Automatic annotation (TrEMBL):
This is Suppressor of tumorigenicity 14 protein homolog. It is an enzyme of class 3 (hydrolase). One of its GO terms (cellular component) is membrane. The keyword DNA-binding does not apply. It is a single-pass type II membrane protein. It is found in: Membrane. Exhibits trypsin-like activity as defined by cleavage of synthetic substrates with Arg or Lys as the P1 site. It catalyses: Cleaves various synthetic substrates with Arg or Lys at the P1 position and prefers small side-chain amino acids, such as Ala and Gly, at the P2 position. Keywords: Disulfide bond, Glycoprotein, Hydrolase, Membrane, Protease, Repeat, Serine protease, Signal, Signal-anchor, Transmembrane, Transmembrane helix.
Length: 847
């Protein structure tokens, strides 16, 4: 949880605070002074004395300011490593209390002093160095250097440190070098992460572990799993393997505070915290089912953990072992032959090791060409999000470099001959999960038999060309099209289905489909009540539309006349901000928009891989599985409080055989991830009461909502939590992405899922939806889906949530209700619009 939400805000001491703490002396009494007129001379003397005192004081202040203040110095720490090529590693170097360690460390520190003396900038501010560790190859020394730098000079010291290699060269070439001095290579250094030497730490812990073949060690945060990790603590684990081995660190539990600024863990491919060797920074919660294994490039690894004063979580535990360099997972590349096959980056789906490079040579039968498709592609690195050069980690195919994170299956390359080479490279810092690729032999003359070949080499059905949908993923199936009468001709040459005109979403990409809507003139905006007002009226502080719509979403909150569009505070005042509830800012005078906000957050940190659309345990903690006793899963439901669930009314209608309307028919499973796998985190509840909406219409599915009261309340946990309930005015704008979840069928007419599934869909304009669904959509329904087909809720998902992210929380936008089949093209899923039932839910449940 980040501290914005904690209610415990950090308030830095401001100048104002200082002002209020200064005590001023009482002012002199002027009347008294007037009466006590003394002789003129005495007055003059006193005046001179006071003047001299003031001058002295001013001089003192100026001297202090220009002389001493200038000397305010900041501590700057640099970490680094260097290879000492004229020394041989001895076992005694592993322990810092041996005389051998101390002797070599002394030599290293004196040589560092000599190196820094080659730069005037560094020599001036250098305080000292300490050697933290040595490792094999020949001998690698890991050190920390401290500088005291005057404020304003930090950049110049950073610059001087960046020339460290040149300084080492200078030092090494120095003619009068003593014969026993160290010969250095591969010198790297970088500024230490300032959070690692924060003055607020009250405890420093250091552990060292040397793994052995055949044994599995373990590291964990102090107190794990029985108590939270300690506050204000800095911990480091220096991990070693035997020479020729690499370290494998396998997390089975990782649960830290969500905000990395407060508590975090960092893994380095080094024995000291060198930023250019950082492999990963972690915080928050990772599901135990997520593959979370890291490999070092050499035989050392460093794990650091820092906690601040508040909100300490259970912590982490990781298994530690060594694997021989060159064994499975540490290597990659090779010869691949045949018609088709697959290959992955090393250690996939876990993290690839840093400093790895390899090459695959693919050969398919003569006369054919090679087509490679990356089914998963995750090579991202902080700060490189928009990098085109791919100068860090990359994959190279056909002389083209690929990096970053790409949607599944969108990176595809085809060769001109029957061979192809694929290169994978990871640099020294930051690792990711890598890629999973497949290759196949294709006919060069006809790479997509009876299909359209996209620019990105994908093949799509001919009927999908120029149909308004981006089927290729790179839009190439929608270029150079002649639009039919059923399509809008966008100015940029694209064709889009006519029913997308004026739906509020810029489908053309150049707004053509959203121009001239609502009949308002240019320079005017269309109010939600269809009135036209001048563009200048938007956000001008006056309700020109009459329904407040020109003053909504203006980045601030103002009091407005109450309407269907405004948020009503508990004190009945209405404010203009859209969706102000639980957004972390108090907008209502009475604070009611930020009350009852322990909802809509999962402990889960987003993972991006493995298992397709399986959720991770605890990712949607409000999801409930409703079982008919003795039968199994039938419907979904959503937790809204410790006692109440929301589901669909059509789930609780009796039929000839089963009395679905009776509480005794059902049992509710909370915290469930895999059907049939009722572990310790799952809570089973019987029902006390079922309240179907009295206006539910079994023919039209209108008002398809019901409430279920549990026989006894549940205690919230990482796996069981409520979703946030939207205010009646909560806006779920069309085009927004929302989540559907459930154990329903994974295709129309198919089997139910074992593991809770998730998928992202978009909210669809109700008018468009009504046209697509033959006029069956009422204002109590909400449409969501992917109109290209393929993603949807299905049988067995009914009653479950349509979860809409807003800020860092999820709100219950809808309840899975009905649809025309499942995942069909142009047939969205239909959901019960929860905002329409907010009053009814409050009345029945108090939530
Ligand atoms: C069902 O039968 C069902 N495609 C739920 C949702 C949808 C279709 C069917 C939406 O429970």
């Amino acid at each position: 949880m980040d501290y914005m939400d904690s209610g415990l805000r950090y308030t830095p001491k401001s100048d104002k605070d200082w002002d209020t703490s200064v005590q001023f002396l009482p002012a002199s009494d002027n009347k008294k002074l007037e009466k006590k007129k003394g002789p003129g001379k005495v007055g003059a003397v006193i005046g001179v004395v006071i003047f001299a005192a003031v001058v002295a004081l001013m001089t003192g202040l100026l001297v202090w300011h220009f002389h001493f203040r200038k000397d305010v110095r900041l501590k700057k720490m640099y970490s680094g490593s260097m290879r000492i090529t004229n020394q041989v590693f001895e076992d005694a170097y592993e322990k810092s209390n041996t005389s051998e360690f101390k002797a070599l460390a002394k030599q290293v520190t004196s040589q560092l002093k000599s190196i820094y003396s080659k730069s005037p900038q560094l020599a001036k501010y250098y305080v000292g160095s300490t050697v933290q560790a040595f490792s094999e190859g020949s001998v690698i020394a890991y050190y920390l250097s401290e500088f005291k730098v005057p404020t304003g000079q930090e950049a110049s010291v950073d610059k001087a440190m960046s020339t460290m290699e040149k300084l080492v060269d200078k030092e090494q070439r120095f003619l009068s070098r003593p014969g026993n001095s160290l010969v250095l290579e591969d010198v790297i250094s970088s500024a230490l992460d300032a959070r690692l030497f924060s003055t607020s730490f009250s405890q420093f812990l250091k552990f060292t572990e040397h793994t052995k073949t055949g044994t599995i060690g373990q590291i964990q945060s102090p107190g794990f799993p029985n108590s939270p990790y300690p506050p204000n603590t800095f911990i480091q684990w220096q991990l070693r393997a035997d020479p020729g081995y690499v370290i494998k660190l396998e997390f089975d539990m990782m649960n830290l505070e969500e905000n990395c600024q407060n508590d975090f863990l960092k893994i380095y491919d080094s024995l000291v915290a060198i930023e250019s060797r950082v492999m990963e920074e972690m915080c928050g919660y990772y599901s135990p089912s997520e593959p979370l294994t890291y490999l070092s490039s050499g035989n050392v690894m460093l794990v650091t953990m820092a906690s601040d004063k508040e909100k300490n979580y259970p912590g982490f535990r990781a298994k530690l072992s060594q694997i021989r360099r060159g064994s499975k997972g540490t290597t990659c590349g090779g010869q691949l032959t045949g018609e088709k096959g697959t290959f992955t980056s090393p250690n996939f789906p876990n993290y690839y090791p840093p400093r790895t490079s390899c090459q695959w040579s693919i050969q398919v039968p003569a006369g054919k060409a090679v087509k490679v498709t990356f089914r998963k592609f995750l090579l991202s690195e902080p700060g490189q999000e928009n990098s085109k050069e791919c100068s860090k980690d990359y994959v190279e195919v056909n002389r083209k470099k690929f990096c970053g994170e790409k949607p599944d299956g969108t990176v595809t390359e085809t060769s001109n001959t029957n061979t192809m080479s694929v290169v994978f490279f990871s640099d020294a810092s930051y690792v990711d999960r890598g890629f999973d690729a497949s290759y196949e032999a294709i006919d060069v003359k006809d790479p997509c038999p009876k299909e359209f070949q996209c620019r990105n080499q994908r093949c799509v059905k001919l009927a999908l060309k120029c149909d308004g949908w981006n089927d290729c993923g790179d839009m190439s199936d929608e270029l150079n099209c002649k639009c039919s009468s059923k399509h809008i001709s966008c100015k940029n040459g694209l064709c889009k289905p006519m029913f997308w005109k004026c739906d509020g979403v810029d489908d053309c990409g150049d707004l053509t489909d959203e121009l001239n809507c609502g009949g308002c003139k240019t320079g005017q905006i269309t109010c939600k009540n269809a009135k036209c007002v001048s563009e200048k009226n938007r956000c001008d502080g006056t309700d020109n539309c009459g329904d407040g719509s020109d003053e909504l979403d203006c980045g601030r909150s103002m009091d407005l006349k109450c309407s269907d569009l405004t948020y009503r505070c508990k004190n009945n005042k209405c404010i203009s901000k859209v969706n102000p509830e639980c957004d972390g800012t108090q907008d209502c005078e009475d604070g009611s928009d930020e009350q009852n906000c322990d909802c809509g957050r999962s402990m889960f940190k987003t993972s991006r891989i493995v298992g397709g659309e399986d959720t991770e345990a605890g990712e949607f903690p409000w999801q409930v599985s409703l079982h008919v006793k003795g039968f199994g899963h039938v419907c979904g439901a959503t937790i809204i409080s410790p006692n109440w669930l929301v589901t669909a009314a059509h789930c609780v209608q009796d039929d000839g055989r089963t009395r679905y309307s009776q509480p005794s028919t059902w049992e509710a499973y909370l915290g469930l991830h895999t059907q049939g796998n009722v572990g310790s985190v799952v809570e089973k509840r019987n029902l006390k009461r079922i309240i179907a909406n009295p206006n539910y219409n079994a023919y039209t599915y209108d008002n398809d909502i019901a409430l279920m009261e549990l026989d006894r309340p549940v205690t919230y946990s990482d796996y069981i939590r409520p979703i946030c309930m939207p205010a009646p005015q909560h806006d779920f704008p069309m085009g927004n992405t929302v989540w559907i979840t459930g154990w329903g069928a994974t295709r129309e007419g198919g089997f139910a899922a074992k593991v809770l599934q998730k998928a992202q869909v978009r909210i669809i304009n109700s008018k468009v939806c009504n046209d697509l669904m033959g006029g069956q959509i009422t204002s109590r329904m909400l449409c969501a889906g992917v109109l290209t087909g393929g993603v949807d809720a299905c049988q067995g998902d009914s009653g479950g949530p349509l979860s809409s992210p807003s800020g860092s929380r999820m709100f219950l936008a809808g309840v899975v209700s009905w649809g025309d089949g499942c995942a069909r093209r142009n047939k969205p899923g239909i959901y019960t619009r929860v905002t329409k039932f907010r009053g009814w839910i409050k009345e029945k449940t108090g939530v």
